[in-house]
Amino acid sequence: MDKIAIIGLGYVGLPLAIEFGKKYSTIGFDINPTRIKELQEKKDKNEQILDFSSSSFLKFSHKEEDIKDCNIFIITVPTPVDIYKKPDITLLLSASKLVGKYLKKQDIVIYESTTYPTCTKKECVPVLEKTSSLVFNKDFFVGYSPERINPGDKVHTLKNITKITSGSSEESAQKINSLYQSIVDSTYLAPSIEIAESAKAIENAQRDLNIAFVNELSIIFDKLDIDTHEVLKAAKTKWNFLSFTPGLVGGHCISVDPYYLTHISNVYGYHPKVISSGRLINDMIPNFITQKTIKLLLQHKINPLHAKIAIFGASFKENCKDIRNAKVFEVYKELEEHGIKVEIFDSLVDAKEVKKFYGVQVFPISSLKKQYHAIIIAIPHQEFLEVNYQKFLTSNGLIFDIKGALQRNQKNIYKL
Ligand SMILES: NC(=O)c1ccc[n+]([C@@H]2O[C@H](COP(=O)([O-])OP(=O)(O)OC[C@H]3O[C@@H](n4cnc5c(N)ncnc54)[C@H](O)[C@@H]3O)[C@@H](O)[C@H]2O)c1
After folding, report:
1. pLDDT at residue 121 tops 80
2. Which of 73, 106, 219, 261 matches a 20 to 30 Å C-alpha distance to 43?
3. For 314-326, how does the pLDDT look when each residue is reduced to its tens digit (9 = 90+)?
4. What average pLDDT score do residues 257-282 get?
5. Domain ranges, residue 41
6. DSSP assigned state of 57
7. Rounded CA gap, 346 and 96, in Å?
8. d(Cα 287, Cα 32) in Å, to the nearest integer?
9. Residue 182 and residue 53 share a domain
10. What's the confidence (pLDDT) of residue 154?
């Protein structure tokens, strides 16, 4: 019987450990002892997993020797970009080094972390070979199975999203595919590891570009004084028009993964233009929101220097508490730089974490008492849709509903 180690118990690793732990002897390993302690106490700070009870074969550990008896190692560590927007695969390589130490003949290492095409075989496998002194595709095998989960999304879950699988040999690919088939509803066995890596990279690059397109439309239609959301609503009546909403693009996937693709393309001598333009436009949106807010204040005869603004939403996307790369803080800081007083509200995120990473105090919406000259609904969590905003607006105040999530019948409401 297989014994599985999941390396890295974050948004991706924990749900996976929970599913495997229902059927297989599983070690959920993380280098962070605090995370392990919480999980041993059946607490998930990300609030993704509420029920640990059915994973009877799962044990959590931060002691690396606990993975030594495993024969399947699944790596789910972060793959961010550095300050120059270059892939930072340090954690992927250190996790590979750790697994390499315990690798035995016939073992399989599966990478789930997002990366660029060729990374698994060209970067990770040499580390596994070096630390294990074993020979790739003779003594041990690797696979790549990208993760597609969407935290906060209750409809598309690990279990019901089709899982792409791949392996370094015919036999290992079949074995990896059956392993995932035993925990999810459907799998797609890709012909190679590079195809599986590329599929993941293009999925998020495509989404980034589609949002960049509607964000660019917002900039154009703002100049023409035409309501972008109404334009999109009309265009959507065509059968093949793709539906996307303008807004902030942050987080650790959509706003990061395209750089992995452009990086490898640059290495091979082609400098991508379309993908890079999409990134450029989406990265401009916080500035566009700031400028538009100031324009709206002036149109409402509010002096920005005396304005008080409340921003709603401090995570990178709605109904999710993940604050990594949350672009709303760029809006916050830019407004402050213009001398505007800004407060930010969000009950979902961890206020201490926000303070630590962004140096900003975030308030729960229950503490909303004052009146503001403008309310910006940046990230429309479900709970924000119920608020009676007019109560918290000055008589000349306005609402800037970035994603057009509120009911249309509000007074003085604007969208991106
Ligand atoms: N979060 C998502 O929605 C999502 C979706 C699809 C793909 N991904 C990809 O999955 C990967 C993991 O992302 P995440 O959001 O789960 O990250 P995360 O930050 O939530 O969790 C990563 C965990 O790995 C641990 N870790 C770091 N280095 C380690 C090491 N060497 N050994 C063991 N544990 C280690 C950290 O302590 C942390 O608990 C990334 O490549 C990401 O791009 C994420």
Report:
1. yes
2. 73
3. 999 999 999 999 9
4. 98
5. 3-191
6. T
7. 37
8. 36
9. yes
10. 82
CA–CA separation, 356 vs 142, rounded Å? 38
> How many whole angstroms separate alpha carbon 279 and alpha carbon 254?
9
Burial of 279 (0-12, 13-18, 19+ CB in 10 A): buried
- As a whole number of angstroms, the distance between CA 213 and CA 217 comes to 6
Residue type, 381: H
CATH at residue 165 = 3.40.50.720
| Single-letter residue type at 293 | T
Q: Any bridge partners for residue 7, and if so which?
A: 29, 75
Domain count, the chain: 2
Which is more confident, 35 or 408?
35
Q: Is residue 14 located within the same domain as residue 75? A: yes
Whether the predicted pLDDT of 329 surpasses 80: yes
Antiparallel, parallel or unpaired: β 141-144 and 393-401? unpaired
Classify residue 199: in a domain, yes or no.
no
Query: Would you say 145 and 76 are in contact if contact means Cβ atoms under 8 Å apart?
Result: no
Q: Which of 70, 119, 253, 320 is catalytic?
A: 253
**Cβ 32 under 6 angstroms from ligand 1:** yes
Reply yes or no on whether 119 is catalytic.
no
Place of tokens 């029920």: 51
Among protein residues, the one with the nearest Cα to ligand 1's atom 12 is 78
Statement to judge: residues 142 and 244 lie in one domain? no
For a ligand 1 pocket test, name from 11, 75, 325 the mutation site with the most ligand atoms within 8 angstroms of its C-beta.
11
HSE, CB side, 13 Å, CA atoms: give it for residue 250: 23
